[in-house]
Amino acid sequence: MVNAALTGAPDLARLPGRDLVEVARYLIPLEANLVQGCLAASGVPAVLADAHLVQTDMLLAPALGGVRILVPHDHLQQAQAVLEAFARGEFALGDDADVGE
Question: Where do the DUF2007 domain residues begin and end (predicted)?
């Protein structure tokens, strides 16, 4: 399940003492990894927070709020654009995609 990219003041999601901002949360770690890969492929450095903890016990995912995706503050606008493109399906593979089978 996906929480939409943060709308509103990014300062609310800013980590104290760090230049990282939370841009999205996912209850399923695999989805968070997929989005992190799309961000990285688009040139946005992104890290996952709480992914290992959520994978350890999936029942904790709702209590923790899921896996957080964090990006540097200076990449915030680019990350939001990538998240919007992902939501529109622009990163989806077509039926004819060569996936190395």
Answer: 22-86
Which runs of consecutive H residues, i.e. helices, occur in 15-101?
Answer: 29-41, 51-56, 61-64, 76-88
Length of the chain: 101
Q: What is the rounded end-to-end Cα distance, in angstroms, of the chain?
A: 29
* Model confidence pTM above 0.70: yes
Contacts of residue 25, Cβ cutoff 8 Å, sequence gap at least 6: 2, 3, 32, 65, 66, 67, 68, 69
DSSP 43: T
Residue 61 makes CB contacts below 8 A (sequence gap 6+) with 27, 28, 54, 67
